[in-house]
C-alpha cells in the first residue's frame, strides 16, 4: 500500500485539494461517495464518507458486518511559517489511503465480503488549541459536532487511525492499537485484532494505554491523551483506536514528520481487519465482557453525554 500512501501524501500536500478532487481520484467502481462541506468564521473542512459494498455486505442485502474506518484528525496544516502537512494529518492520510486501495483492488476483481465505510474530513486550514504538552491541531467545529459527522450508524465496528505522538505513553515507531471501547466501557483487546497486528508488522503487537478521561467529550475539559476513541461517544459499536506513534515526542503541529512506512503499515492493518471482520474471522471485542460489565454495573454512558445533551 505504499503507492496509495505516497499518492495521498502528494494529493494532500496541495492545500487547494479537498474532498471533491479526492473523489475524482478514485477509479470507477461500485463505491458511493457522500461529501458535506462545513465552513465557519474560523475555517472550513470537507467531510467525506466512502462506502465500498461487499459481496455479502448489508448494502447488498447480506449479513456480513460493516467495518468503519474513521481517519481521525483535527486538521492537515496550520497557517503560518510552516506550510507543510502537520503530524495531525496522519489519520486522514491512513483513511484516504485505505479508500484508494479498496477502490483499486476492486478493479482487479478483488471484493471483500463485508461493506467498508471510510469516513474522514479534509481540513486544509486548521487552528491551534492549547494542550499539554503540545498544542492540538483543531478543526473549525468542536468535537461534539465533528465526531457525529464522522460516525455512521451503518458501522458495526470502528477503527480510528490517528496520530498520537505527543506523549510518553508508548515509545515505539509504528502503529499500536487501543483496548476496545464500547458505550463507555474500556475492555480487553481481542486476540484476533492483536494477531492481525502481528501478521501485518511481523512484530509483537503494541497496545496503547487509554484512560476513562479519553472516552469523555473534549468539551468536559478533562485532559485527553488524544481523541481516537471519541467515536465511541456517538456510536454503540465497539471502537479500536489505531494510534500512529514514535519513540520520542513529536507535537501535532510539527511538519516534515510523516513516516511513510508507518502510514503504510497502519493502512494495511485497517484493510486487513476490514477483510477479516467481514469474513467473520475477527472480532473487535469479546461480547461477553461487555455484557458482563453491563450486567454488573448497568449502563455507564450518561456522563458521556453531559455536554452533548445539555
Core attributes:
single chain, 310 residues, Aminopeptidase, seven-stranded mixed sheet, two-stranded antiparallel sheet, 29% helix
Placed side by side, the strands forming the largest sheet appear as 1-2-4-3-7-11-8
Low-confidence stretches: 306-310
Instruction: Give the strand content.
Output: 15-25%
Shape: globular
* CATH architectural type: 3-Layer(aba) Sandwich
Question: What's the total number of strands?
Answer: 11
The biggest beta sheet reads: 7 strands, mixed
Number of alpha- plus pi-helical segments: 8
CATH uppermost class: Alpha Beta
Radius of gyration: 18 Å
Topology (elements, then pairings):
Layout: H1 2-12, H2 19-25, E1 32-40, E2 43-52, E3 67-71, H3 90-106, E4 116-122, E5 127-129, E6 136-138, H4 143-150, E7 157-163, E8 174-175, E9 181-182, E10 185-186, H5 191-201, E11 239-245, H6 260-279, H7 287-297, H8 306-309
Short description:
By secondary structure, the protein is of the alpha/beta class. Helices cover 29% and strands 18% of the residues.
Please give a structural write-up.
With 310 residues, this protein is α/β, with parallel strands linked by helices. It has a single domain (2-309), classed as Aminopeptidase. It is built from 8 helices and 11 strands. A 7-stranded mixed beta sheet has the order 1-2-4-3-7-11-8, covered by helices on one side. It is globular. It starts with a helix and ends with a helix.
